[in-house]
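thought: fold this chain, then report.
action: predict
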Amino acid sequence: MKKIAFYGKGGIGKSTTAANVSAALSERGLQVCQIGCDPKNDSTRLLLGHICRRTVLGMVRDKDNVTAEDIVHTGYHGIRCVEAGGPEPGVGCAGRGIIVALEKLRTLHALDDQDLILYDVLGDVVCGGFAVPIREGYASDIYIVSSGELMSLYAANNIAKGVQRFAVRGGVRLGGIIGNGRNTPREEEMLRDFARRLHTRLVAFVPRDIVVNKAENNRQTVLQYAPDSTQAQIYRDLAETLLINTDLTVPTPLSFEELEDLVAQYGA
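observation:
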C-alpha cells in the first residue's frame, strides 16, 4: 500500500489537488482512499459532491460502537472518503480529530484493502495531531503544495523542517514540491530553484485555470467536470508521477533570510 500526505499553507489548494489526484488514480483502477485531516471537513467535498457530515470524531462522540460503514464513505469513481473532523470552533484541540481518526481506522482495519491512501493535512502545522501522518508512519511520501508567494514558501520550508526532523526516526521522506500557480513572476522557475535548494524537486507545476473554479462551484473534480481539458491531463500526469516516484529525500531547509533573497531574486 502506498501512503502519501499533502501538506502546505492554508488555502494553497491542497484539497483541490488531492481530490483531483485521487480521481486520476482511481481512473487507473486503483483502490484509493482520501483522508481529510482538517476540522472543516471539506477535503472530500469534490469527491462526495457535498460536505461530509459523518466525521470520525463526530461519530466517536455520538455512538458507542462505531463501524467502518459509519466513517468510510464512497465518492466519485469508488474513492473511499474519510473526514477526521474536529471540535467546535474555540473548543478543544483540532489535532485530536486526526489522532482519534487514524487510531479508529487502524483498529477497524477499515482500509486494509486499499492500494493507496492520500492524507490531506491542515495547513502548515507540523506539531501535535497534525504531525501524526509523518511522526507515526501513516504516510511515507510527503508532498508540499506551494505557490511562489513568500508566505507559501515559508510554510513549505517549515514543513520541510518537520520532515527532516522525523526522517531521523523512521522512513518518512519528502517526495517533492507541487507548484500550484498564483501567477507570480517567474513562478515555476522559482519553485524549481526552491526545490533544488531543499534537496528535492518540483514534481509538477499546476497553472491557474478558471476550469478549476467552475468545477469546484459544481462540487466536482476537474476530471469529472471537464475530463478532456488540459487541466485534467495535468492532474493525471501528476498522479502518475506520484505513483512511480522513488526519488524521496531528507530535505535541507533554508533560513528565512535565504527565502527572502530567493523571492527578491525572482520577483525583481
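thought: worth noting. The chain has a mean pLDDT of 91.
final: C-alpha cells above.
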